[in-house]
UniProtKB/TrEMBL annotation:
Record protein name field: Sigma-70 family RNA polymerase sigma factor
Keyword annotations of the record: Sigma factor, Transcription, Transcription regulation
Summary of subunit composition and partner proteins: Interacts transiently with the RNA polymerase catalytic core formed by RpoA, RpoB, RpoC and RpoZ (2 alpha, 1 beta, 1 beta' and 1 omega subunit) to form the RNA polymerase holoenzyme that can initiate transcription.
Transcription keyword on record: yes
Domain RNA polymerase sigma-70 region: 4-69
Family designation: Belongs to the sigma-70 factor family. ECF subfamily.
Coiled coil regions in record: none
InterPro entries in alphabetical order: ECF_Sigma-70_Domain (IPR052704), NTF2-like_dom_sf (IPR032710), RNA_pol_sigma-70_dom (IPR014284), RNA_pol_sigma70_r2 (IPR007627), RNA_pol_sigma70_r4_t2 (IPR013249), RNA_pol_sigma_r2 (IPR013325), RNA_pol_sigma_r3/r4-like (IPR013324), WH-like_DNA-bd_sf (IPR036388)
Native organism: Actinomycetospora straminea
Length: 288
């Protein structure tokens, strides 16, 4: 188990980037440990690169879920967001995972637009440093095809970055400044002030999963986002907004709204304004 513990943050990051689920990531890493244990001393001694072996094993365990994701997303009610990593400090097993730039909400949403095989190839090779021969073995394709999957994924990520869907990370102090201004405008019900905090091309995603009342589509444009958020805040009441507390969500400054059920939100900040507002409300994604 010591070997797996040594690589646990890396393996959790691989599984989480593939599935968008904290629970699935933990299950995959646990199952990988069981497979490693079953190798026995002789089998373990024959493994040349333990980190790569574990990463490819975790990926195989996640592969069915990754490949079934497009069909599940089609059936999903409203916008889909990954299970948020609300970390509580160094004792949280996901703390090291959340510190990575590639698990930001914006980064995971970009991965959602890749084909399943592109996502696996990109995460394994570009993110985990696994060779293309091993990537091909996981995907059941040739090495050349595995390279093509990763190359196409790389181009898609670069295009998303150029289009502003994946802005560069900003310092926590800048994130907090934008979040404070965002919450102050909401508390006042001040639509113009909120519009000033939002990027003109801002997008709002509220993930209620068909269980909790939420917008069924992505809302686009600063004015439309601001008006909807102010309306929701007025419906919720000032007591809830007063109880909002800052938390770390996927390594960025976010907010916890202690409603019933609770809500977790995080802003994607670019050029000093919020270009993405992501609110997770689906109860099963907030159990952790």
């Amino acid at each position: 188990m010591d070997v797996v513990e040594e690589h646990r943050p890396h393996l959790l990051a691989v599984a989480y980037r593939l599935t968008g689920s904290r629970a699935d990531a933990e299950d995959a890493v646990q199952d990988a440990w069981l497979r490693w244990d079953r190798l026995g001393a002789d089998g373990q001694g024959a493994v040349r690169d333990v980190r790569a072996w574990l990463a490819t094993t975790v990926s195989r365990l996640c592969l069915d879920r990754v490949r079934s994701a497009p069909a599940r997303r089609e059936r999903y009610v409203g916008p889909w967001l990954p299970e948020p990593l609300v970390t509580t400090g160094p004792d949280d097993v996901f703390d090291a995972v959340a510190a990575r730039e590639d698990v930001r909400m914006a980064a995971l949403l970009v991965l959602e637009h890749l084909s399943p095989d592109q996502r696996v190839a990109f995460v394994l090779h570009d993110g985990a440093g696994v060779g293309f021969d091993d990537v091909a073995d996981v995907l059941g394709c040739t090495t050349t095809t595995a390279r093509q999957h990763a190359s196409r994924a790389r181009r898609a990520v670069a295009a998303a970055t150029a289009a502003g869907a994946l802005p560069d990370p900003v310092p926590a102090a800048e994130q907090r400044r934008v979040l404070d201004a965002f919450l102050a405008a909401l508390a006042e019900g001040d639509v113009p002030a909120l519009v000033a905090v939002l990027h003109p091309d801002a997008e709002l995603r509220t993930d209620g999963g068909g269980i909790v009342k939420a917008a069924r589509r992505v809302v686009r444009g600063a004015d439309r986002v601001a008006r909807l958020l102010v309306a929701l805040a007025e419906e919720t009441g000032p007591e809830l907004l007063a109880a909002v507390r800052p938390v770390t969500v996927n390594g960025e400054v976010g907010m916890l709204l202690p409603a019933s059920p609770p809500m977790v939100g995080v802003l994607t900040v670019a050029d000093g304004r919020a270009v993405g507002v992501h609110v997770v409300m689906t109860p099963e994604k907030l159990r952790a």
